[in-house]
Predict the structure of MarR family transcriptional regulator.
Amino acid sequence: MARTTDTALKARESDQPSPKATSRLDLFKFVPFRLNRLAAEVSSALAVEYQERHGLDIPAWRVIATLGFRNDACSAQFIAQCTRTHKSTISRAVTNLLHDGLIERVENQADRREFRLQLTGKGRTLYEELFPQLLRREDEILACLTAQERKQLSALLGKIEASLDLIQTSAEADAKQAY
């Protein structure tokens, strides 16, 4: 009886292809894969601007960029959460940037046990030199899109960010003391 059942089962299986045989994940159509690949490529393209000229790696730039767009000092934890970079990676970048005199620790007035980070004068000068170059590079990357397509892309990314409950503006992050 078991033999007949096995034979019948095999016959049915051979008539219809198994789901594994006919369907597979096409990574090149899978949005998370595409977004990750695109983010990595764009990040690498931008990194040329600060790596070759200033010796900064991507995590160090993320620290400088986060501190540069903020009005107030913030914690390394904020930077890690904001940039979605592992805290140990940010910690190493912070150590190097402190050593290079680009950032400094300041006491948190609300909690004197905690130190926050801010750009030094040297770090601010570097940030102000770099961000226009990075904006120009962003324009070069997006040159394949029309002005309308750029607006649509921004709106669509915003919708995805909102659906994932991600903070989308620095004002929103400051107001919520988020990240």
Observations:
- Residues 12 and 95 are 63 Å apart (CA to CA).
- The first strand starts at residue 103 and ends at 107.
